[in-house]
Specification:
- This protein is an alpha/beta fold.
- The protein folds into two domains: 4-182, Rossmann fold; 187-379, Dehydroquinate synthase-like - alpha domain (Dehydroquinate synthase-like, alpha domain, Up-down Bundle), CATH 1.20.1090.
- The protein is built from 14 helices and nine strands.
- It has helices spanning 22-28, 40-43, 47-53, 71-83, 95-107, 187-206, 212-234, 239-255, 262-274, 278-307, 315-328, 336-339, 345-354, 367-379; strands spanning 4-6, 12-14, 34-37, 60-62, 88-93, 135-139, 151-156, 161-166, 174-177.
- The protein has a seven-stranded mixed beta sheet with strand order 1-2-9-6-5-3-4, sandwiched between helices.
- The structure holds fe (ii) ion.
- Residues 196, 199-200, 264, 278, 282 line the site of fe (ii) ion (FE2).
Length: 382
């Protein structure tokens, strides 16, 4: 596959070993003293060495980032950013590292607290836009798509809620998509993150809002998952599959500018309370939400089935494909296998109802609906 540069929805440098061009990216954005933000898992690999060796100057690394990053992770990073007189962020990792890096670059110049910028109405206009520092994103997983997104998801430690923090300038200014950096991703994380790509494309495609650009991207993203996710899971060194999944991931978050839905609404409270993996949690909920939304999405699902060339162009054959895909990727069918606690469904259903993703769900759901969905997913009742 040849190296390519794309400029939609932000400059993307795709290709093998493009991470070697990290200094050129800094120069293009006039970053002289970048802070590298990543997570402790990535720090144990040779990925950060690859980034650092491409830079002309010595720099600091911030890696105090949880799997479901917290507001404190962001604000501690802001302290390091200021202490080191940094002027930009290189965000390296999966969703947690990249979101935290984006949060630090955004918050380093703000006076209001992080939670004042939640993705509600026009809260983002509260920000001081002059003081938002440039971001270079280098994903090491193919899932979150944070590299092409304008938001970060952080857990509020006090309320145990996941909050989406949004600002248009949280979109990275340069994205480096180097498939070599995803080769070391173990099969389980390849599966979980890949299912997040599918959740993004599927929920975006099915959301009721008018956004034909995203509609097209979502459809092709689903097709990429069908063609390449199981291959990447079974053959970690298959660079063609890794490349396609990495681009698919960037497409997923581009697509979900059109909206998400109840898969993410149900998943966020579980992640916030039990610290489960986001993509895995989405994958567990996927068929239950599809069935719940069936009456409002059947035509769209038939259109997807046709595009990805399933055996039959029907809702049932699509559902069958999802269930088989989860099996092939060793993803559990029930929520019980994930959390073994059914005592908080009432609280979680309220959180799910209030989640910003809920607005994009094709079928209008009540708190009671969410509670039943939690119970059905727990019991494996489709
Ligand atoms: Fe997601």
């Amino acid at each position: 596959m040849e190296n390519m540069n794309w400029n939609y929805p932000t400059p993307i440098w795709f290709g093998l070993d493009r991470v070697k061009e990290i200094q050129i990216a800094c120069d293009n954005l006039d970053i002289k003293n970048p802070l590298i933000v990543t997570d402790p898992g990535i720090l144990k690999t040779d990925i950060i060495d690859k980034v650092v060796s491409g830079l002309n100057t010595k720099t600091n690394i911030y890696s105090d980032v949880k799997g479901n990053p917290t507001g404190k992770n962001v604000m501690d990073g802001v302290s390091d950013f200021k202490l080191g007189n940094h002027d930009g962020v290189i965000a390296v990792g999966g969703g947690s590292g990249m979101d935290t890096g984006k949060g630090i670059a955004f918050m380093a110049g703000q006076e209001r607290p992080l939670w004042d910028f939640e993705d509600i109405s026009d809260y983002w206009t509260r920000a001081n836009t002059k003081n938002i520092f440039p971001i270079i994103a280098v994903p090491t997983t193919a899932g979150t798509g944070s590299e092409t997104g304008r938001a970060g998801v952080f857990t509020n430690e006090e309320t145990k809620e996941k909050k989406i923090i949004f600002h248009p300038k949280m979109m990275p200014s340069i994205v480096i998509l180097d498939p070599n950096l995803t080769i070391a991703l173990p099969p389980n994380l390849t599966a979980f993150t890949g299912m997040d790509v599918l959740a993004h494309c599927l929920e975006a495609y099915c959301s009721p809002f008018f956004h034909p650009l995203s509609q097209g991207i979502a459809l092709e993203g689903i097709s990429i998952v069908k063609e390449y996710l199981v291959k990447a899971f079974n053959n970690p060194n298959d660079i063609e599959s890794r490349s396609n999944m990495l681009v698919g991931s960037a497409m997923g978050s581009t697509a979900f500018q059109k909206g998400l839905g109840a898969i993410h609404s149900l998943s966020h409270p579980v992640g916030a309370i039990y610290n489960t993996h986001h993509g895995l949690t989405n994958a567990v909920f996927m068929p239950y939400v599809l069935v719940k939304n069936k009456n409002d999405i059947e035509d769209k699902i038939i259109a997807i089935s046709r595009y990805i060339n399933l055996r039959q162009y029907t809702f049932d054959s699509f559902l069958e494909w999802i269930i088989k895909l989860r099996k092939d990727l060793l993803i559990p069918h029930t929520l019980k296998e994930l959390i073994e606690d059914d005592s908080k469904f009432n609280t979680m259903s309220k959180m799910a109802l209030d989640d910003p993703s809920t607005g994009g769900n094709p079928t209008k759901l009540s708190q009671k609906d969410f509670e039943i969905l939690y119970q059905n997913a727990y019991d494996g009742k489709l």
